[in-house]
Amino acid sequence: MFSLSGLGDRSPLLVVCTPHRPPGIQSDRSKGVLPLVRNQLEQLTQAGGNHWRKIFNLYAKLLHGLTPLEPDWQTCREQRLLQTDSACALVFEQKWIPEPGQLCIVMGQTYGRSLGWMANDQVLPAEHPFVQHPEQAVIVTPYFDYRQLSNARLTSLVQLIAGEHPHWLTAFSKRSHQFSADN
User: Are 149 and 142 in contact (CB under 8 A)?
Assistant: First the structure.
């Protein structure tokens, strides 16, 4: 467990960092990362509108692309995303440094720069818009929006992770299968 605020598994292997928090989620670092409870995802998307719906949908598509345990990404979103023991978390408004065996995805180049994961003059390449930190298991991606992180780019991100982090993906897959078996 770490002392950041967010949603999801308290000991995640995959953490997505966002510069914003959904409406209704208070800034209380003492509570750390909390798993979603029944119907909370629906409440968050209703309160946060299309913006947060896109973020949760793209996170579910990424999760399903990495470990396709459910029949589709929508089922993954409803049954696994940000749940207890799901091995994934969404952290708000803070720099997160991955521990060994963890992978961090930072949403957006501006946020990636502000956290120090990218140089001030560095930009995400147009064709392959991902920057992997040379020393940490951190990948800066386009912001989780359909125009910036299209399905084709999401597929490229899954391929990048599989190619650059095969041991992490094996461990993540094992944890995901355990979650699926337990639920």
Answer: yes
